[in-house]
Amino acid sequence: MYKLLKQEGRAKRGEFHTVHGIIQTPVFMNVGTAAAIKGAVSTQDLQQIKTQVQLSNTYHLHVRPGDELIKEMGGLHKFMVWDKPILTDSGGFQVFSLAGLRKIKEEGVYFNSHIDGKKIFMGPEESMQIQSHLASTIAMAFDECPSSVAERSYVEASVARTARWLKRCKAELGRLNQMEDTINKHQMLFGINQGAIFDDIRIEHAKQISQLDLDGYAIGGLAVGESHEEMYHILDVTVPHLPLEKPTYLMGVGTPANILEGVERGVDFFDCVYPSRNGRHGHLYTNQGKINLFNQKYERDPKPIEEGCQCPACRHYSRAYIRHLLKAKEMLGMRLCVLHNLYFYNTMMEEIRDALDQGRFHAYKEEKLYGMGQRNM
Predict the structure, then answer these.
(1) Which of 36, 150, 211, 258 has the highest local Cβ count within 10 Å?
(2) Is 277 domain-assigned?
């Protein structure tokens, strides 16, 4: 259940009540594709760096180790030792990214595993069954993510099929939640709005899916090649047609600036691989913009990544030491950088929530963007 606590313009401050605890929104979900954050980050670390929600991937876990094995182990929460909410995405985006290996039909998608080439079929029912085995807090509906440069006729047909698939997802999850051996009988379902960069298709689809009274609504198919301006425009025209009293999730986005712009347009949930992926390459987020620890100027730098930061890396180690670890390809270097970046993101979300509570989000957003200087954003 979602509780809207406050609004400033279209920005929302809320609480989302789930069987695995309350999520304070706006929130950033830390991406653990294969049930772990890349960079040797444990679930104990996630507790320390203020993580509220962990996101895992349906397709990847289905392929390895197998969703039935995870069900046997008591579900994803037990398997990875994490007691807070988990969102599983439906596998739809992986189908999009496996363009060369797939065939899309009304019943679902036929494609080959990226690991061993094995033939796999996934449709709405299969995606719900896999996610039910995983027993995540929130399951995402199975959709197709059309390319942002796809022809209008293709996008129309794709979105119409995604709408039909969503009804099948809802019916199947309803059935699974009633079953005796289902681990999480309170699994929630979020539907996904698609439509590439066509305003009218997005709006029509948003209106259509809003009638299904789902637990939340996501906007998918952005940050896949369109410009930031196009993305913000799609949010401007689409979000007002999604239910205000339900959480809105912008999938796969983004940079700190993208998140601030998304919050301003009414988005509650975000996820992105940037903080962990960039961290593994020595690219670090700070309130003064992004820094690259591989730059020689940090070779003898005794300062922490960011003065005043309370993350596990900044509390103990210097830029010089972490840079040395990265250069020596020591895993600890990657780990410390990922911890810093995720802490930065989670702390920024905390600041956003505080600013909304105080009715000063717009001022906070301007200050934050100015401080970061929009460098390399």
Answers:
(1) 258
(2) no
